[in-house]
Amino acid sequence: MAMQESYCKAMRYSGPESLQLRDQTKFDVLIQVEALTGCRHTCTGCFVDKHGDPAAEKELLRVARQLADGVKAAGLNLREFVVGPTDFFSASNTISVLNNPDTQAILREHTNARMATPAKFELADQEQFDAIFAVLDNEVKFRKDMIIEFIAPIELPDTMLYNEEYFDAVMQRVAYFKHSTPKNIDWSWTLQQSSILGRKVSKKSYDAIIDKALNEYGTIVEMNPAFTRAPVHKQKENLQSWNQFLSNVIDEGNCNKATMSMANLNCNSMNFIGLTVLMGTDGPEVHLNVMLHEQAFFPQNSRTNVTGLSFSQIMDRRNELILDGIQQFSEHPLYKDTPYVIALANRLVWEAIRALDLTEEEAILPMDVLALYNPYEEGSHLWNEDALKQATFKAGVA
Fold this sequence. Notes:
This protein has 398 residues and is α/β, with parallel strands linked by helices. The chain has one domain (7-304): TIM Barrel (Alpha-Beta Barrel), CATH 3.20.20. 41% of the residues lie in helices and 14% in strands. It contains 15 helices and ten strands. The strands form two sheets. Strands 6-5-4-3-2-1-7-8 form an eight-stranded mixed β-sheet. The longest helix is centred in the C-terminal third of the chain and has 21 residues, at 311-331. The radius of gyration is 20 Å and the shape is globular. Residues 1-19 and 391-395 have low confidence and may be disordered.
């Protein structure tokens, strides 16, 4: 068995990181490293830099490991190690990144951590696919039970919906994940701003995509617009277009099918920090992530640039930004009377408002969509198995 049991339910429903704060027992950390370079795909509207220097991977992974060591020293939980930004199966240096001692050390020493990566696995060259799994399945290099999450962009919605040959190709690879590797594989579709708006996906198409994913592909669709990949002068426009898209397609009839992390006010909030390691002009940089539909980062915002700081200093910076965010949101006409003040501040969303230079009349999120979820229903039927075990354990020892 190489797919996580009930993996679709586990991803579709909330996990331990989304429990009420009184029930949470750990502080989660996500480290994202921009180490992959090269990509053979030409996805509509893609702004990812595919031409990074492969030689930079060693320095980037070295810094990522230093951060991971800081997580361990602080007694926190590295939940996710994200390797990007290009396609895992067609990047020019994937195997080199996997063979790097720092990559292997991070995932070996942090036994709760999963590796996540953008992956068009259904289109992967078979030779490259086999070569990558030969490294992943080498138990000297990676834990046998390590969880890997492949995040598959939906580039052509009609192909995903109606092309039987494409469907068969996807499911053939899913069968491989289930039966031919000892790794625990998760995978999900993702809708991104570039392809969805470029192809003018309607509400009817959106509903069909969600239903096809859940009922036939057996997985979820995550709403990850990747708007900060665009040039700085396009980011605000892209975010606003994405928010409008969500308002157009999500309603009471389908909101429970959509995977909207932003809708849960506990998810990736008080007990979470996300960091991105990328190559800057003068070497590797580290940036605090903003939880805004996804793990967004704004290199143009100097306040979220934590390059050169120790992990404890990074936590101090995060706390300073949270306190400022609470004050700003508490006085902001769009948010001060909403239940979102604390969550938005802890997700560092005020830093996105600063970076995008939004006015007081311009919402950072589609408030009508959030209203469909909040106040959200509570109850054990909403939690996946890991969260249920944790909540049950706490109730038993209380």
